[in-house]
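pasting for ref
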Amino acid sequence: MARPMRTSRLGLELVKSFEGFRAHAVQLPNGIWIIGYGHTATARKGLTVDKADGELILRHHDLLPVEQAIADRVLAPLSQNEFDGLISFVFNIGIEAFAGSDVLSRLNTGDRLQAADAMGFWRKGRIEGEVRVIDALVRRRAAEKALFLEHPSGRASIPSALVRPELDVGASPMTPHERAIVVETRVDGERATAARASAPGTSPQAAARAVNERLTRILGENASLASGQTRPVADNDSVQDGPSIDDITRAVSALADPDGKLQASPVIDVAKGPPEGVERRRTPRPPSPPPYASPLEHGGGMLPAADPVVVDDLEQIRLSDEEIERTLAENGNYHDDTWYEVMREGWPFALLAGLGMIGFLLGVERFFREASRLVERTSDIYVGPLIALGSGVVLVTSAYYLMRILARRT
């Protein structure tokens, strides 16, 4: 059991910052009344409280059962920062939910990093009957985890050059189609309300509009100078590779406003130049590559384009008798004969296999001959089996390599 601890000023401020203060009792959509810093036990219609009294109620009434629950259920020793982070977490999810959570089980096994990671999973809430990720809960979990992991001795230095972070593929981020709900609370005489998540296309379209506006500034080819004059355009500036400025601007505009409801950004005309106030930025063009020049003469020029050669891999190859004879003459009139190659490479193994067969038969014959008569020495009876055993090893090994040669050549 953890030693008795109390919430510090840092932990109290963390709870207050996320709970928010309500000077007047407010009825929530579920019918519960709330006042002060998240106090619901004795809240009722018509009650008022100031911030000092709200803090006293929070510290000496609402946080007492949370502190006792942590002291009773957490078996591992806790630092003050860990205790304060847990206070905010348990106060938010509830004591019963904390008792059955992975945070408690992992904390009791001594794995603080796993416990802090499990805190981040409590990021969803039920808004208008639908369970969704809530941005305020994500931020609260992040603050609680940061306080929980803050070591009393200070932060450990871990230079980026020493340990380069890598992607944890086992993590469980939000799915691409899942968007967090932005919660807005009105605490002075109004009921708490929640705003729905923004439209799925809002964020990408806003980013596309920003890119469109930046392209409008960057891609201007004839912006007005400070004196009001127009910079002349060189003859070779009219020739461009790839899509034109109009095509790029039009494509980005279509992404920013696929339905055509928004006012499109002005399209820059290369001949007339951008509208007034549009910044002009030009990137110097690389010089056109010179025609083919010898590397020795010009310090490395471009090689000439090779003549196109079409290779038909399905074309049937026909060789004349003269070409066959010439090839045979160049290769020493060599002909590929399978059995000839087998005998040329395998005759040593065939010879060893024959000798092994002969030795095996002689060893067996000697064993039976010595066993059928009385021998002068007992060791003579073992000569035959030893000869048969050695010859059998030679026979099997030679036959194995001979079969490999046969399998490779056939």
